[in-house]
Prior knowledge:
The structure holds 2 protein chains of 2 kinds. Chain A is mostly helical. Chain A has helices at 2-30, 34-37, 44-54, 60-72, 86-121, 126-140, 143-157, 182-215, 218-225, 230-259, 262-267, 273-282, 286-314, and strands spanning 170-172, 175-177. Chain A has a two-stranded antiparallel sheet. In chain A, β1 and β2 form a beta hairpin. In chain A, α8 packs across α10 (230-259) and α9 (218-225) packs antiparallel against α10. Chain B is of the alpha+beta class. In chain B, the strands form 4 sheets. In chain B, strands 1, 8, 9, 10, 11, 12, 13, 14, 15, 16, 17 and 18 form a 12-stranded mixed sheet that branches. A 4-stranded antiparallel sheet of chain B has the order 4-5-7-6, covered by helices on one side. Chain B has a two-stranded antiparallel sheet with strand order 2-3. In chain B, β2 (61-63) and β3 form a beta hairpin. In chain B, α9 (294-302) runs antiparallel to α11 (343-352), α14 (430-437) packs antiparallel against α15 and α15 (457-466) packs antiparallel against α16. The model of chain B is unreliable at 1-22 (pLDDT under 50). Chains A and B meet through α2, α3, α5, α7 and α8 of A and α1, α6, α7 and α13 of B.
Amino acid sequence: MLAFILRRLGQAMLVIGAMVVIVFFGVNVIGDPVWMLISPEMDQNAIEATKVALGLDKPIWEQFIYFVGGALQGDMGRSFVHGEPAIKLILSRMPATMELALVALLMAVFIGLPLGVYAGLKPESRISKSIMAISILGFSLPTFWVGLMLIMFFSVMLGWLPATGRGDTVRVLGIETSLFSWNGWTYIALPALNLALLKISLVIRLARAGVREAALMDYVKFARAKGLSQTRIVGVHILKNIMIPIVTVLGLEFGSLVAFSVVTETIFAWPGMGKLLLEAIQRLDRPVIVAYVMVVVVLFVAINLIVDVMYSILDPRVRLTEARA
Amino acid sequence: MRTMIARWIGVATLGLGLATIPAMAQDLVVGLSAEPSSLDPHFHNLAPNNQLSAHIFGHLVMRAADQTLIPGLAESWRVVDPLTWEFRLRKGVTFHDGTPFTVDDVIATFERVPTVPRSPSNFSSYTRGRQITKIDDHTMRITTGVPSPLLPNDFTAVAIIPKGVKDATTEDFNARKTTNGTGPYRILDYVQGDRTVLERNDAWWGPKPHYKRVTLRVIRSEPSRVAALLAGDVDVIEAVPTTDVARLKADQRLSVFEATGSRLIYFKMEMNRSPAPFVTAKDGSRIDNPFLDRRVRLALSKAINREAIVARIMDGAARPAGQFVPDFIFGASPSLRPERFDLEGARKLLAEAGYPNGFRMTIFGPNGRYVNDTKVIEAIAQMFTRAGVDTAIETLPPANFFSRASQGADGWPEFGMYLTGWGSSTGEGSDPLRNIAASFDAANGFGQSNRSRYSNAKVDELLKKAIATMDDTERGKLLAETNNVAFADQAIVPIHFQVNIWAAKKGITVIPRVDEWTLLTGISKQ
């Protein structure tokens, strides 16, 4: 187990290193951030002074060495735009994104799984066919459009939920979260649903396929012959067997929910990391972009690790030492 | 079934009723389009930052909605001699914590401005070379190395902090340890990327603003900002997208407020090198830079149907432009008019200049920096093509565009002809002339954004004379004259001035501003 985790961490370091190099030099190719930062009236001396202040007067490789030196001591650099440590900016925005992703994930499970299992058990029923048709829509409609439609319908036309923003936050265990107030839930409902839509469809499809396959298995027939109730057969025997692919996919998707909630956060003005990243890219705020990528890689590695551990819990046949990624 | 739905809706509405905190009559929520990068008023010379500083810290001189200068923390000012200004400060003004405001605070502010570390664009160009001498607590003299008639305009940009926080860092400001100003509002809460909550400073020296508690929310996505207003989440929004203006105007529950802005959208053409980048003959062969001929520049201007662009692409939210600033701004020329659309005239001029068959070029522009920028470029490319100049377009993300437009791989501005914009930050006419029309002389702060390297000795001479002229009337005449000379020479091809638009719930009045700022002192309820 320990060897497995250590190997994973080693791989993570390699990935982080590679990503940092790509992003650091990649951003530099896009353009010179100085032109995005200065006010157009500044004279040449002032522009030069800005370059020096931000360390942009040095050749790119020198900037990189300087950055790596700082990073090894835990200093990921300061945002060009905000003047604050990049990692601090990202971490201050992280709770908002995390709670959005978490709620979206829960929606995916609690909406997607029952619908998918139903569709798998009664594949020919009209309701099942409608569920599958809707899941195709969930897959194919672009997120930003669905987001705007949700706002139009639930906020503008019906007036039930606020259109944008985050609700009142409460400090729980040192983290600002809006999940402990009713007001917070009214704000998070639409963006989370928007973010979850694709995942709900995904879970529906996985669950349906899994149930259809498992329903024909001998152990299900045996359980039925033994006279077990339908609830027990579905709730225990089938569900447990179809969970492995779902957990895998949801684990990975949770990473993507956190890392790529950019569109949803922008549409709903949700003050999370995604919005920060988008603004950083638009202004070529390299320290923030690089730090963001590092945070996301760490996150993905951690999630993968958790998924692997969960496998071994769900399926005793899987032993972590055997898993060679 | 029906009763079930009814009950469900009932529960949902009940829940909503509980959810919304009863809004006070004096509460206001504003949806802004951009957010400040910092609470430090001297960190980043960026419109959203300056707008917020104006609420919290206050300035010596302020700009009215139409950009005329009005007294702020300074009650009055006068020219003593061409190198000396005298400012009388308002008496009885206190900071939010109650300490009185004096000349010492101004001196401390001027000392801090050039020293803010890691500032992406600092305010030192407004304070450099300006020596403050204290006469008494509320009188100061400022000596300048050169005659500086624009000093009061520059002072509209420098937010005044109390002397006690001269050594505060940007982080101290962001952490709200030191956001003590003299402004009409004080800051209650600041969640970076989300909201700023302000509370009225009842001790402010000016007329009491209507709203006691204001939440500024940043909603960058245009449709979401409009939806937030329609849904009633916010009371006022700024930067209304042009496509929604007609709809919002028709809505009985809303009011729309507009003002012609000072932001000019225009084309610049390479005037320094030959051949010009991205310009060839129609068969792709090399030609000398056609833009060096004034007739070509004029032809391109005549080929643009400005009325059509304003009506069709800007949905009416723009005014055709014929010079650097709208005619109500100080320094505008009374005689310049937008060039009339004249396709035949354009073709004729091109033929006269030696291009009877036209030529081929690619024009460039940012996408998403100015209102409908890509659509404007697309339409104009077709107009140029109709006049005989086969025009392709390339639009780039602003970060990429401005970098390359200023400095390409070879160190020179990269594009032959490109669209960009300029908003006069001083609120008067010398600023665009100095930055766009004056010959490129970066070391002395002339022609900073003159990427085409246009150079006209007469323009330079008139402009330099104007900005050293202390007498306002005389200076206005000289600036108008400079405009006349620059446009007789077609230094740039102006397209339009953007119209700034606000929308609010019925009953709320917003004073629309030329400089795109949303100021809470200008928002009230009838």
